[in-house]
Write a structure and sequence with these properties.
The protein is mainly beta. It has no helices and eleven strands. Strand 9 and strand 10 form a beta hairpin.
């Protein structure tokens, strides 16, 4: 079983950068993908970026070229480097880990607030 803890959110001005980190407290065995999602007020939660165990990455069109996702397998962490932030990036950001096998699982962190002022 994995527990995910996010860190690194905060308040920045437009154009600045932030780095979000997510640490998985379990063994990390069986994690097939980790990713970041976000939810802005009165909007649905949406995918920001994910990375598979094999290193395949995918990004939402709205962040491609500005955000970079990376994973440290040894430390069981996933990081989201966010550059050139825009006010529309303001949201609560959630980390997610998908585990395959027996038992399988779909784990979420508690979320971290990112606020970008104009």
């Amino acid at each position: 079983q994995e527990q995910l803890v996010e860190s690194g959110g905060g308040l920045v001005q437009a154009g600045e950068s932030l780095t979000l980190s997510c640490a998985a407290s379990g063994s990390g065995f069986g994690i097939i993908a980790m990713g970041w999602y976000r939810q802005a007020p009165r909007k649905q939660r949406e995918l920001v970026a994910f990375i598979t165990a094999g290193g395949i990455k995918n990004y939402a069109d709205t962040v491609r070229g500005r955000f970079t996702i990376s994973r440290d397998h040894a430390e069981n962490t996933v990081t989201l480097q966010m550059n050139s932030l825009k006010p529309e990036d303001t949201a609560v950001y959630y980390c997610r880990a998908v585990v395959a096998g027996n038992p399988s699982g779909d784990y979420w962190g508690q979320g971290t607030q990112v606020t970008v002022s104009s």
